[in-house]
Write a structure and sequence with these properties.
Length: 117
């Protein structure tokens, strides 16, 4: 059973920065895709960014140039560095992991990010 634990959310002013962390525990494959999605009230969950084991990233268009997804030294940690935050970035941010046999994402509980003055 794989579990994901996010940390680092909170309240930040527009233009500020936050760094989210996610640690996966359980049976983790050496090849996997980890990343971040977000869901604002009344909206569908959307891609923020993902990163595969080899380091290739895929970042959503609404955050490109402002957010960076990176991996830790091991196979089970992913970070989201968020810069130049805007009020429209306010959402619950969910960590995700997909791995062989690639049956879909495992999700974390989510962490709230609020951008407001």
């Amino acid at each position: 059973q794989v579990q994901l634990a996010e940390s680092g959310g909170g309240l930040v002013q527009p233009g500020g920065s936050l760094r989210l962390s996610c640690v996966a525990s359980g049976s983790i494959a050496s090849i996997n895709t980890m990343g971040w999605y977000r869901q604002a009230p009344g909206k569908q969950r959307e891609l923020v960014g993902t990163i595969i084991s080899g380091g290739i990233t895929n970042v959503g268009t609404s955050v490109k140039g402002r957010f960076t997804v990176s991996r830790g030294n091991g196979k089970n940690t992913v970070f989201l560095q968020m810069n130049s935050l805007k009020p429209e970035d306010t959402a619950v941010y969910y960590c995700s992991l997909n791995q062989p046999p690639w049956r879909g994402n495992v999700w974390g509980q989510g962490t709230q990010v609020t951008v407001s003055s």
